[in-house]
Design goal:
globular
Length: 100
C-alpha cells in the first residue's frame, strides 16, 4: 500500500509517450501525444491500490513542468487532467487558450 512517506518519482519516457511512476512494482502513467507545440494529455492510469494518494496529480505536474520547459501548450483530453486544471488554476498558463 502507498504511504504519504513514500517518495514518488515520475519519469518522462518519450519513447512510450508517457509520464510514469512505479509504485511497489506497479505502473501508473499519463499518456500523451505531441503535435507541433501542443501536447495532448490523453489518459491517466493509477493502480487501484494507489488511487486517491496524489499519484495522478504528480503525473500531471510532471507534464506541466515538461510543457513549460519545451514551450508546449497543453490540451487536456483526460477527465482527470481537466479536473486537475480546474482545481489548480495556477497551472493554467500552459493550457491552450480555449481551456484557460
Amino acid at each position: 500500500m502507498y504511504s504519504d512517506k513514500d517518495e514518488i518519482e515520475v519519469r518522462h519516457v518519450p519513447e512510450s509517450r508517457q509520464f510514469e511512476a512505479r509504485l511497489h512494482g506497479e505502473l501508473a502513467y499519463l499518456s500523451y501525444t505531441v503535435t507541433g507545440d501542443e501536447i495532448s494529455l490523453d489518459h491517466t492510469y493509477v493502480p487501484d491500490a494507489f488511487r486517491g494518494s496524489g499519484v495522478a496529480a504528480d503525473l500531471v505536474r510532471a507534464a506541466v513542468k515538461e510543457a513549460r520547459q519545451r514551450h508546449w501548450k497543453i490540451q487536456p483530453r483526460c477527465s482527470y487532467v481537466v479536473a486537475f486544471f480546474e482545481r489548480y488554476p495556477e497551472f493554467a498558463d500552459v493550457l491552450q487558450p480555449q481551456h484557460s
